[in-house]
Amino acid sequence: MNSHRLYQILKTFLQYGLDELLPKQALPWYVRLFRHSLFWLRNQHKDKPLALRFRLAIESLGPVFIKFGQMLSTRRDLLPPDFADELAALQDQVLPFDGEQAKQIIIKAMGEEAFNLHFGDFDMTPLASASIAQVHTASFYPDGKAGQGRDVVLKVLRPGISKTILADIKVMAMFAAIVARWLPDGKRLRPKEVVAEYRKTILDELDLMREAANAIQLKRNFEQGRSSDKVLYVPGIYSEYCHKNVLVMERIYGIGVGEIETLHQQQVNMKLLAERGVEVFFTQVFRDSFFHADMHPGNVFVDASSPEDPTWIAIDCGIVGTLNREDKRYLAENFVAFFNRDYRKVAQLHVDSGWVPHETSVDEFEFAIRTVCEPIFNKPLAEISFGQVLVNLFNTARRFNMEVQPQLVLLQKTLLYIEGLGRQLYPQLDLWQTAKPFLETWVKQQMGPKAILTKVRENLPFWNEKLPEMPDLVYDYLKAGKDSQIQQAKLISQLNRQQQQNSQKLLYAVFSGALIISATLLFIEHKSFPALILAGAGAGMALLALKKKPDND
């Protein structure tokens, strides 16, 4: 671990007074003494709230900690509201690195000949700069520079970012262990697990080939006639020029979803746009089981070329989420039950899925859920906070020992993003009424007669392939069953014979022991010849018991 970096982090935390997060009464005397010995590292921001100081400290520590703060801001189930709100204010823009250096990284990845042949007008000034990578614009010539050019962007990982990230994560893990041990709520906050989750997420983002594959899959899901191309557009990826640290993607020209005034000036149908945002989310989750899990405003744009028929545009697919069939079904049924205010079913589904212990009282759990959810219905989005509802639900479920479900963490994060976008675009949107028909239709498709026919149709090729083998398979099964019965009969017979032989050996041993004891007593009393005969008979029976061997077939 880099001792200089560790000191820098410790210095930043202390100068922002973050040691106040640790309860003084729980700290051992030597820790308090060590803190007082660092007299030159005093809190320099006493006039600011603790949550603000926490966010400023993370910002000052650089890209890795900023990214961590952004991820942590989505875990409202773990943080106090003021901390979650402050961390949500972290921005993606960070200082860029040199454009010439970015160009050389690209040339090294794809080769100088390929770069000079297919790319031109490379802009040294980055279009955007984020914590892990930055983006440059260029022209792409598929057939060489003599052909027609296309506008593209090239995403380049920051040089040395992997080493920096791994070093900083080690430090984070150390502080997480301290928080878990000394903070009163440390165990519930699960800081070690949060750091482990962050490590996995950010290491996945360091592989731009993974991001390219995710974007291709997401684009394919919303094409091929399976969904209107007016719902979501994903820029094309030029995968043959992508590498682990370089991504080449079609350049899009849209309006940032957070630019509300511009969208209004373009007379965009905000109601339809907001409704399509809900449709995009639920389609990804429940139809495709593959969803963009980083849909913050910096990654979402709007194609307003047809203002009355706007299209969502999604970029940066480095983080995606998936759900298995069972989790997806339970989630859909939970949503529908929520929309129908069937809190009994919600409680029962949590128990059936194993999300809460099976011994949980369904009646008590139902009442607790009703208390949280009933006040929010029949209200427009502007009057409710779905994020706050989620937090209340997490707190309620925690009272009933609900464990954190790792597969649902990204889903919860994406739901919070969707709420924020919907609130910005069209505050009057009724999220419940928009999503309910979609989910009800999906549940019917998954559990009704149509679902059965679909499954039969999907399995027909397999059954058709195996059908000619059925007679042989049936014969082999029956023959195996008959052979098994014969083997079982032989085994039972063998066990019975062995049991009989063991009984005989036991009988010989008992008689042998009795004869030897009798002979011993007779010899002690009379020292007569019959005692020797009895002893000999006992020894003979003992030999018979020892020599008796089980029969083998």
TrEMBL record:
Domain of life, source organism: Bacteria
MF annotations from Gene Ontology: ATP binding; protein kinase activity
Subcellular location as annotated: Cell membrane
EC assignment: 2.7.-.-
SUPFAM superfamilies, A to Z: Protein kinase-like (PK-like) (SSF56112)
Cellular component aspect of the GO annotation: plasma membrane
Binding site for ATP: 127-135, 155
Segments crossing the lipid bilayer: 506-523, 529-546
Pathway of action: Cofactor biosynthesis; ubiquinone biosynthesis [regulation]
Principal location: membrane
Catalytic center residues: 294 (proton acceptor)
Listed name of the protein: Probable protein kinase UbiB
